[in-house]
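Lab notebook, bench 4. The sequencing result for the construct came back, and we need a structural model before the next group meeting so we can plan mutations. Quick request posted to the team channel:

Model the 3D structure of this chain.
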Amino acid sequence: MLLNSIFSFSILALLGLLIFYIFQEKFIFRRGHRLLKNTPFHFSTPFDEVFLTTSDQQEINAVHLRLPVPKGVVLFFHGNKGNLTKWGERVNYFLADTYEVFVMDYRSYGKSTGDLNEDQMYEDALLAYSHLKKSFSEDKIVVYGFSLGGTFATKVAALNSPKELILEAPFYNLKKAVQFVFPFAPVFLLKFKFNTNHTIPLVSSPITIFHGTHDKTTSYEDAKTLLRLNTSSKNAFIPIAGGTHHNIRTFPSYKQKLTILLER
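Done. Here's the predicted structure in token form:
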């Protein structure tokens, strides 16, 4: 009976590992429904829709929220959940500080094509930055990453010289992020690394991290450790007392500090 129990447990454990390995993309990338290319977006502010062609001939869909006379532009990398149907409206609060916003969907999100591939996703992020440099000087571009988007924002800033790098609720790397939510997850099976900790030391622009003290999705302490990897005196970690993973932008302290960052 003991041998039978051990055998049954082993089979269940192996089955669990197999399920985690096969379906990890669905756990990590919560893409929502796909969108046809001709699906119209409806936002409350003026915008242009953009399709960027990648090196492997895929199309990355983006929206550019417009202003008549902007001070600059925020290149916004969104989180792992939802597509531009949600995020195109979610990011319009930057317009109040006279900054336009450019936000893209990752591969296989919304109207964007291509398979999820870590190296290609970083290249896509850099492509978006290169696109904006055609219209804005780098001292007018703020790179902003929310949660998963923090890893792409950090990579872009590490290889360029934007005005600011702003991270909201970032993770140290994907392994730590998964372990924070699921302590016993078999992270050795992860296909994606997203090692933000490897790229943040290379950033020369000022870095500001906002993180809610009650965040249950990404680790507040890991975010502080992440910022310490870059030794610039220009950096700042801004705790949002009582903030969770999704409501930081509603806090007056966040709005006030964000305005200061964009105006300096």
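Strands lie at 47-53, 59-65, 72-77, 99-104, 141-146, 164-168, 207-212, 236-240.
Will bring this to the meeting.
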